[in-house]
Task: structure prediction
Amino acid sequence: MNIGEAARASGVSAKMIRYYEATGLIAPVARTEAGYRDYSMAEVHTLRFIRRARELGFPMETIAGLLGLWQDRSRQSAEVKRIALEHAAALQEKVAALEAMAATLTRLAEHCHGDDRPDCPILDDLADGRAPLSPSSGEARPRYAAARR
Amino acid sequence: MNIGEAARASGVSAKMIRYYEATGLIAPVARTEAGYRDYSMAEVHTLRFIRRARELGFPMETIAGLLGLWQDRSRQSAEVKRIALEHAAALQEKVAALEAMAATLTRLAEHCHGDDRPDCPILDDLADGRAPLSPSSGEARPRYAAARR
DNA sequence: CTTGACCTTACCATGATGGGAAGCCTTATC
DNA sequence: GATAAGGCTTCCCATCATGGTAAGGTCAAG
Result:
């Protein structure tokens, strides 16, 4: 099975398969005489494992640990559980941070009449109550066009 | 005011102030004879605006637009409100994705007895019910040590 | 005048992914 | 057998916002 077929079979892009190999997350795979990577189903299963773990938001470093545990028939499930719960807690922290942002924005937007008048509590909050700069026409070939659409 | 003082006054690191200038988010600032950047309070206010917007998770590109609106005395608050609500919606999408991950992990962990026995529904789920690879001792100086702590 | 703190620019790294170029290989068609 | 299409190889670059570091200039206090 070449890399394209392995990619389709595992749901991991060929690009990422090579990357996983280059970084040592997976072992270098067999090659054909011509130098093509040659995959067996075992490797495809490993790739599926990785894809599923990525879908659950595990960072690659943690996935390396999970792969080790997966391959370790004498593992203790407590270790896996600990890693999973630790990651779940990290996710929940991110959720809390994002929710706080969204709540602030929603609250500010509620107080913004949102019509053609210029005054806007959202900008006031961002500015912390101060007046803006005069329009600074910078050179420096702007990556951000400061466009008002 | 030199860049260090401006950084302390705005809460934006000197590094990031230079970066914002290089990318055109803010205009090039005055320089002393020796080439030191020289900031006024107006610039510090702009930096504070940016910092606050970053805290709310706005990407730099969007902040460029918000800065334009902030400096535009003829802006329509509806435009600001639209941007804010759009961003809030994007945040909520991320929240939903992260929450789904966390929920799945929590559910899997609940079904894992978490003791010194090896069987583990968490790994089973990741593996989709298949058997693991035999321990592949890859060269490729692994960045991820596959360590079992 | 020296020292230490600060400034300048320039480069590298992050994490996981995609894009693309240049060149070799395989397969199908003629 | 020749050719074309498409897949493979490696290598480099970009993302996004941020930090680190190094080499060298500047400033203020002692």
Notes: Residues 2-4, 14, 18, 34-37 of chain B lie near DNA strand C (CB under 10 Å from a C1').
